[in-house]
Amino acid sequence: MFFSSQRQQFFKPLTSKYREQVVECLRLLYERLYSANADYGESLRREQIIEIFEEALARTPLIEINSDDSVEDEASTLRFKNVREQAGWTLNLLIENGWIEKQVDQVTFQSTYPFSRMGRLFTQPLVEASSTRVRTRHRNTRNTLNALDAFLNRGEAHDLLDAYEYSERIITDFTDVIAELEDSKRELVKEVESQVLVQQASEHFFDFMEKRFQPDLSIRLSADSVEKHRDQIEQSIAKIRRKRKDFKKQAELRLRQLAPELIQSAEQSVLWLILDTIELRMSKASDTMLPALRKALQNFTKRADIIIRQIAYLGTQNQSNILAVCDALKNDNSVDAQERLQQAAEIMSPINLRLVDPQQVVISERKQKRSVDTIIADEEPLDEQALQELMITQMLEQAFSIRNEDLKHYILKNMHSRKLIHTSELAVNNADDLLAMAHAIELGAVNQSSSDYAFLIEPLKRTTKNTYFKQFDEFSIALIKKDKQ
User: What are the residues whose beta carbons fall under 8 Å from the beta carbon of 172, sequence distance 6 or more?
Assistant: First the structure.
């Protein structure tokens, strides 16, 4: 259970009016412990953590709770004498609710305060949400392909598990980018509602295109498109499936040791499950998520196009005197106004108005949703007569089928050391020989099986008969070298 005895009120520190300050304390502590500037050989003591929290509290504002908030906040009644006292209270709150652990050294009896496992996992997204560092989210498709190739070459099960994890992140990255585009579109719509914020909205759009689209989305839609790497990933998976049995057996045993949570049953292969899942994820990413990303980007650019048009309209308004002319006409009497309008009509007379061509107006057809019948029918026993007919059909097909290899051996056995033989000279000793004789002219289809010799079949333009056939066309069969053909 997640809400165990140590984590019954795990999210309590993030519900009071001090929640923004608590989040900032967690961010600074996380950066102090796990960032590039952290000293990994040092464990922080209480005094050091208090200093970190003091810095976080000093630069983070306090969020006031609404008066109509019905939730009673225990921390709202607290009044701290100084920042240090509030830092101590924050540390105790995080320890009490399972974000930070208190560990005591049995030799020196000194206490250290690292993150708990759940505290570290939940603090990481808080740090990434406010981080400005570059993230190469568009590389997960290539990482999947590289991990599969590494497993194919070295047979290390960890590489296959990495490919399984990277393929899951492909879908997550698409979802994050689509959600980001939707948020940006809603922000643009909100800013355009006021003419004062039109310029700010346009700056937001161009900033997005310069800092977000060019370095990340353009790569995702071109160089790192899942459609581009999908075939290569499927080829790597096919090569893994065609590996030797001992290779796959060793990989299966190792995967069952490293990832027991993927074992669904004793009969199902974990290796096959991982490969099938990667193929399914690539298919979903290429067929579903990539079109959804393109549609979200198209909607975002449409909103930006509206902003640019509005800016252009406002710019032309600033340079025109239409509003001033309207005010002047409103103040003039009817005679003067009529004369001025007549003069304007004469000036505007060269304007040619045209109607829209009806052929250019096309109504787009709506795609009809396919109805899928998900009703599961009860299994009915097959008719006994139908089973008999099916069995007889299969036996007849097997009885009258012949392989090209058997046909080739039959002809060579009849030719002995001769280089040419007629179909009327073929010996029939059993049923297999009779079938081979009937298919003799099909030897032309097996010419690609050898790199040195080939069969040359020519009609003799005459008919003959034997014990089994009343009449059949006669052919000559010769064995020649391909370079002489």
Answer: none
